[in-house]
Design a protein that fits this description.
The N terminus is likely disordered. A hairpin with a 4-residue loop joins strand 9 and strand 10. The chain has one domain: SPRY domain (Jelly Rolls, Sandwich). By secondary structure, the protein is of the alpha+beta class. About 15% of the residues lie in helices and about 30% in strands. The chain starts with 18 loop residues before the first helix and ends with a strand. The relative contact order is 0.15.
């Protein structure tokens, strides 16, 4: 008996003289091969998406003066009043945003962002070299790969903006960066669904963007 069906036992009535036994064995062997192929495909998919999980912290140096970072640099809140901070070259002075401290120049990286029940947010990845002064346009052409929630609508920051079909509002968003492949993917961690994937070519250092 073939290795794939060696653990199965059959009634004596299913002898080799019965055509049905041959069909049964062939069917079992096919199912065994299909299961092995599926397992191999799943393992390959896991390997393709294997990434370094990043414990992102926020960088206070580029943070807009209206953004207040927590002591552990894990949370940020928007205030109406600007803080008295140095207007250094790396600080955003018009757009209320902040970058992660981590910089990526290769490999695969994954992190998650808690958005909770906030009604307005933008998050993703940007080039470290993006312009920090004056108004900015969050788009791949300007070095940003991001998604956002505005006026109750989820959107990918393409040019023009692309509406995203979302069944369950995400309370946590996963960001998967594959630097070599040139992909930034976003996932709704709440219902384990895919939101959007940007495909581009990267150079230089990329940083988490909020």
């Amino acid at each position: 008996m073939e290795r794939g069906v060696s653990s199965l036992s059959f009634s004596p009535a299913w002898g080799p003289s019965l055509p049905g036994s041959i069909a049964l064995l062939v069917t079992l062997q096919i199912h065994h091969l299909m299961a092995a192929a599926l397992q191999s495909e799943l393992e390959s998919e896991k390997e393709r998406h294997r990434a370094d999980k990043v414990d992102v912290t926020l960088d206070p140096d580029p943070a807009h003066p209206k953004l207040v970072l927590s002591e552990d640099r894990k949370h940020v809140r928007h205030e109406d009043t600007r803080q008295d901070l140095p207007n250094s070259p790396e600080r955003f002075d018009c757009c209320a945003c902040v970058l992660g401290s981590e910089g990526f120049t290769g490999r695969r990286h994954y992190w998650e962002v808690e958005v909770g029940d906030k009604t307005c947010w933008t998050l993703g990845v940007c080039r470290e070299s993006v312009r920090r002064k004056g108004g900015i346009t969050v788009s791949p052409e300007e070095g940003y790969w991001a998604v956002q929630l505005r006026d109750g609508e989820y959107q990918a920051n393409t040019s023009p903006l692309m509406p995203l079909p979302v069944c369950v509002p995400p309370r946590r968003v996963g960001v998967f960066l594959d630097y070599e492949l040139g992909e930034v993917s976003f996932y709704n961690v709440t219902d384990r669904s895919h939101l959007f994937t940007f495909t581009d070519s990267f150079s230089g250092t990329l940083r988490p963007y909020f």
